[in-house]
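Dock 3-methyl-2-oxobutanoic acid; give full complex structure.
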Amino acid sequence: MIRIFDTTLRDGEQSPGCSMHLNEKIQMAKQLERMGVDIIEAGFAIASKGDFESISEVAKAVKDSTVASLARCLPKDIDAAYEAVRHAESPMLHVFLATSPIHMKYKLEMKEDEVYERAVESVRYARKFCSNIEFSCEDASRSELPFLYRIIEGVIDAGATTVNIPDTVGYTTPQEFEAFIRAIRENTPNIDKAVISVHCHNDLGMGVANSLSAVLAGAGQIECTVNGIGERAGNAALEEVVMALQTRKDFYQKETRIRSTEIMRSSHLLSSITGVRVQPHKAIVGINAFAHESGIHQHGMLKEKSTYEIMTPESVGLQKNMMVLGKHSGKHALRDRLADLGYEIDNAELEALFVKFKALADEKKTVYDKDIEALLIGQYSQVEDGYELVDYQTATSEGKDAKTIIQVSYQDERIERVGTGKGPIDAAFDAMAQITGEDVRLQDFSIHAVTQGKDAIGETLVKIEKDGRMYSGKGMSTDIIKSSILAYMNAINHMESRRKRGLNGNTV
Ligand code: KIV
Ligand code: ZN
């Protein structure tokens, strides 16, 4: 059995544009749990108050997966990591220190012996709190093998239960990495007392291939992220690792506990939360991954699917975009449809969602599954007690500045301002800046249609920057001006809510 260690919420979240709010992280963690991920790395507790808070909420919400926090080899990091995961049913501490000559010399400015002592001491310290300890030799693939044998033996003796061999800079190749892992297995005397894990970055596009090669050499855990998000070119993609092991079980002879039918939903949830879409031809989860365009292929498929299909769309949970509900559908129908889609929601969530669903069904003739999912996911990013849109009007004419009037309610007050700009959205953002009195910079703005048709929901994502910190917001409506106003307002609300809680946004 190969253990799947998911680091979407930690290494994945480090990738530009992929930061998530607290509720979004909890939803993502629940989905990872539903998918059957063995370990969820929920964050890096010491990094920020926001990280700490989300790890501890994920630790409380998740029951069937182990929840881990990252920590450097420092007592204050390990203390924070344990404090964050201690409510988990199954907590794990993930301690790391660089072992390559280049990192030891330039980054750590430490000698091998000092690195060895610090690593062993830290694992011993972490072990006082928790019996499940992973130690990572950062930049392992560029480290000297004899030093790795020594430090791995030391940390296992000190209590590490998993030793992780990261290809931190995505430098290795499949054949080299297989031999590397085999050498570690053969030359570290106590290696059978720990699970060997691998964590491959994708700088040369070989993250998944390298991870799978390590399996051939005896690795028992793969660290990966949904949609392959992560630092720089990302991490090994969970869906590719899992489907390669499943589809080529004849070759790898290994299984995972992942429910592959949850893959598509996980991918889609992550994209909806972060606004980072996967490329259309991305393996497994790209929109074209199961589309057959050429006549010859279509002809073959009609006769016998296995001519061009090595795995079925159903096996990854790909569903047709069904038209199921309309304005006469009731709450039960909505709850049942959500359950079919795999979402369990409580009564309060259902009540709130139903109001939005009715409003949408009035605007839109047909409500698709994706629309319902978008409404639900949009709900996760809402902030209570913030600005609320009451009304807006916009006027544009050729050669003149556009005008947008916005009225909001804020703390029992009504505020209305007129904004001007190059177009109605620019004017709307000007009005919002006047209302909030916040001098923010718009860093990113995108709109995409959730489904097809001219009455499709437009989902707008906005990123604003203030004092070097980034805040994101999301808005949804069949009217793109409204969805843009809602997204901007949502970003401002997130900014205010984080400030109130003494938290900062992500650094730009
Ligand atoms: O890439 C890396 O080396 C890491 C470690 C912290 C495991 O992310
Ligand atoms: Zn990494």
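Observed: The pocket of 3-methyl-2-oxobutanoic acid (ligand 1) is lined by residues 11, 70, 96, 136, 138, 164, 166, 168, 199, 201 (CB under 6 Å).
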